[in-house]
Write a structure and sequence with these properties.
By secondary structure, the chain is α/β, with parallel strands linked by helices. The protein is built from 15 helices and eleven strands. The chain has an eleven-stranded mixed β-sheet with strand order 1-3-2-4-6-5-10-11-9-7-8, with helices on both faces. Strand 2, helix 4 and strand 3 form a beta-alpha-beta unit. The chain binds glutamine (GLN). The site of glutamine has 14 residues, from strand 4.
């Protein structure tokens, strides 16, 4: 294994580019043309994008250039180029969720996060590839081919926001939005060497996000630096009348006071997250991060999260249960694909053929699992039991946070694995062992790049994972910014 500086080049981050645009060093139009030509060169290999929104991006850029020339106010993200996971609705182009079911679906409205990014001056350049309906950890379950990891194109980028992570890692865009139900922002961020941030449940509006697990889903940014993640988060977070699960708590200006002082941080290391089942290089990267924090004066405490592994079983009951209910709307009548009707066939048959044709294997597996755990005979044994364990997991975090401000561990047990490794479903689900519990408990969590490991002659990024109490995003981002700069020295 070779440790390298993992700090993303801050001259290359989104806010530096916003500054370039605002100070007239480059026009928005030039920025869009540059991004389109980077994508034209790389995307035939990486397959990070579904539809590009070139026309829309060019006209936004033209307006931004004119606004700048007039000297009028520009938003905090003005001139930045952002890609959008293709399960977030936009009123331009298609919203496919990487499913044949929605191959031709065009949303009549914009998600709230889209409206807010536009209002902040961002240029939205395209929709990114994902595991179908955001179910997966490898971005291989895609209707139009898998995404490839820009660090090693024979490997997966992680999932389900693999297209968003790959687009940022390959420098096609300044940042991207993803969605995270059990790790789908943070795990691909770790595999691709980017920052990935999942806010507290209820912080960011899901109006216009195609629902997967409604008690777990959150939208968040993937970016090249913590300060970029904070800037995007501030633009999209906050109360939304169109999503009754959003909180009215004020969204603090997260990095206004800069990175946290490590000497005042209490960092908890969950014993269950550093173990021999992890790839040896992953443990080394974690240990290195802990050493840097300790050397900078942070208080390091060992904490226990004994239900870490039970989180995976709990998640894979709750998420499929909610998915099986959310996906009933795709029946061929109201939305999306409809199988050709056969004379004499009943409605039930039409539903069944439509859903068999429209959904891929993993989505069908989730619907079957979810329907099973919710069925009258098994509800108490699985679904109700999972909700009870969910409460215990929340309590476990409450007691851990009595001893520390943030928790630190690996984001994933291994670095990116090869495309086509054909993991059985349970091994695939175990990728999520360190990330699902943040969704189960609803707390904010983020992955930052922390080092590289050598694997079969390739250098693969490894991420570390920070978690904080609900609505403590400002503390979480400040701690992450501190660790990011310690890792860069
Ligand atoms: N990998 C997890 C799953 O397959 C998480 C997905 C997500 O967060 N959207 O369900």
């Amino acid at each position: 294994m070779k440790m390298t500086d993992s700090k993303p080049d801050s001259s290359n981050d989104l806010l530096a580019r916003v500054d370039d645009f605002k100070s007239g060093r480059i026009s928005a139009t030039e920025r869009v043309e540059n991004a389109l030509s980077t994508i034209a060169g790389l995307d035939p290999t990486i397959n990070a994008f579904h539809d590009l929104l070139a026309e829309e991006a060019r006209s936004t850029a033209k307006e931004l250039d004119a606004t700048r020339e007039r000297g009028d106010d520009l938003g905090p993200l003005a001139g930045s180029i952002i890609a959008i996971k293709d399960n977030i609705c936009m009123n331009v182009g298609r919203t496919t969720c990487s499913s044949r079911m929605l191959e031709e679906y065009r949303s009549p409205f914009d998600a709230t996060v889209i409206e807010r990014l536009r209002a902040a001056g961002a240029i939205l350049l395209g929709k990114t590839n994902l595991d179908e309906f955001a179910m997966g950890s490898s971005s291989e379950h895609c209707a139009w081919g898998p995404v490839r990891n820009p660090h090693a194109t024979d490997r997966v980028p992680g999932g389900s926001s693999g297209g968003s992570a790959a687009a940022v890692a390959a420098d096609c865009v300044d940042a991207a939005l993803g969605s995270d139900t059990g790790g789908s922002i943070r795990q691909p961020a770790a595999f691709c060497g980017t920052v990935g941030f999942k806010p507290t449940y209820g912080r960011v509006s899901r109006h216009g996000l195609v629902a997967f697990g409604s008690s777990l889903d959150q939208i968040g940014p993937l970016s090249r630096s913590v300060r970029d993640a904070a800037a995007i988060y501030e633009a999209i977070a906050g109360l939304d009348p169109a999503d009754s699960t959003t909180s009215d708590l004020e969204v603090a200006n997260c990095l206004a006071s800069g990175p946290a002082d490590p000497a005042r941080l209490r960092v908890g290391i969950p014993r269950e997250h550093r173990n021999d089942r992890n790839h040896a290089g992953v443990n080394e990267v974690l240990d290195h991060a802990v050493d840097r924090l300790r050397a900078a004066g942070a208080t390091i405490v060992d904490v226990d999260l004994p239900l870490t592994r039970q989180g995976v079983s709990t998640y894979y009951v709750i998420a499929p249960a909610e998915a099986s209910s959310n996906l009933t709307r795709f029946d061929g009548i109201r939305y999306g694909h409809r199988a050709e009707s056969v004379p004499g066939e009943g409605l039930e048959d039409l539903y069944a053929r439509t859903r068999t044709e429209g959904f891929g294997d993993e989505v069908r597996r989730r619907i079957l699992l979810g329907t099973y755990v919710l069925s009258a005979g098994y509800y108490d044994a699985y679904y109700k039991r999972a909700l009870q364990v969910r409460r215990l997991i929340k309590q476990e975090y409450d007691s851990a946070f009595e001893q520390c401000d943030v928790l630190l561990g690996p984001t994933t047990p291994t670095p990116a694995f090869p495309i086509g490794a054909d993991l059985d479903p349970v091994s695939m689900y175990l990728n999520d062992v360190y990330t699902v519990n943040s969704n189960i408990a609803g707390i904010p969590a983020l992955s930052i790049p922390a080092g590289l490991v050598d694997e079969d002659g390739e250098k693969l990024p490894v991420g570390v994972h920070l978690q904080a109490p609900a609505f403590a995003e400002a503390d979480l981002l400040a701690a992450a910014a501190a660790l990011e700069s310690l890792l860069a020295d």
